[in-house]
Amino acid sequence: MARFSMVLVGAVCLTISVFSHTTTAQLSRNFYSKTCSNVEQIVENVVNKKVKQTFVTIPATLRLFFHDCFVNGCDASVMIQSTPKNKAEKDHSDNVSLAGDGFDVVIQAKKALDATPHCRNKVSCADILTLATRDVVVAAGGPSYEVELGRFDGLVSTASSVKGNLPGPSDNVDKLNTLFKKNKLTQEDMIALSTAHTFGFAHCGKVFNRIYNFNRTISVDPTLNKAYAKEIQMACPKNVDPRIAIHMDPVTPKKFDNIYFKNLQQGKGLFTSDQVLFTDSRSRPTVDAWARNSQAFNRAFVTAMTKLGRIGVKNSHNGNIRRDCGAFNYY
To answer: How far apart are CA 131 and CA 154, in angstroms?
Structure first.
């Protein structure tokens, strides 16, 4: 997760704020009961098949969902391909590292749904991504939870809307809290959602500053576990291609669990934005509590994911059901 806000300007912002209450109210767990009652099973089958093909599907899908919801809301606008006349969200520098397997699982699920006559063009790409995200969490050993459905796909996707709305690897707790608060998410939500870093990969270029150039007098970040710092240096030597990938979680890199918090207690948070959750006295009690109690963490994660899925939801007035998840409908 590169970390996440919804910033819209002018008339667009006004339009969405007018529908903010309506769009949240439209979400329900049985939204497709009369149109595509087996939507969840169809999506789950596609996800499980894709995960068997490549584990990267799991962190890629979860990260894609975060990046979508934090820019203009959960409306699949991050799926849109750029055109000669429009540079879309996915081509902003903060999104170019989003792995293709996350996009692909949504596209494959869309195809599977469209191959089912009563589901054809009935389910939004935004809802497919939301369901697939739940399913990859479960596939990695995380908690299962009910998903609210009823999102429509967004009609706008611009790279310019991304800037400043996704948390960065060097952010402190103040900056993280500010970004999350914009999306009506609490500090506890922020800490819970940060566990997207319990699996998946990061690029060496994102951690060079912590292991080689921390400041003018210290080369290695003193909050970083010394042995872990050496491990990262071995995986990311000074002259290595900055795109080389390393595990986010050095202990259980393919499992969704609360080891993430135990790692932070030991100084093994890969990003500054991870480790500050333990070094900052405001967030440390939550880290300690969830390191001890995985069930409490799982409950908090489900709550945070549900709230995340409500951000900036579109309805039939300011959205539609895309025929192609990567392109706007043109009539």
So the answer is: 17
Is the overall model pTM greater than 0.85, yes or no? yes
Domain map (residue ranges) of the chain: 38-162, 173-308
The amino acid sitting at 253 is P
Phi, psi of 98, deg, nearest 5: -65, 125
Please enumerate in sequence order all residues whose Cβ is within 8 A of that of 239, keeping only pairs 6 or more positions apart, or say none. none
For residue 21, indicate whether it is catalytic.
no
Q: Are 74 and 150 in contact (CB under 8 A)?
A: no
Pick the catalytic residue from 21, 67, 118, 203. 67
Q: Does domain 173-308 have CATH number 3.40.50.1820?
A: no
Cα–chain center distance at 217:
35
The two tokens of residue 234 are 């071995």
Which residues does residue 86 pair with via DSSP β-bridges, in sequence order? 83
Instruction: List the binding residues.
Output: 68, 71, 73, 75, 77, 89, 167, 197-198, 249, 252, 257
Give dist(CA 33, CA 79) in Å, integer.
26
pLDDT tens column, 274-324: 999 999 999 999 999 999 999 999 999 999 999 999 999 999 999 999 999
**Segment 153-173, tens digit of pLDDT:** 999 999 999 999 999 999 999
CATH architecture of the domain 38-162 equals Orthogonal Bundle (1.10)
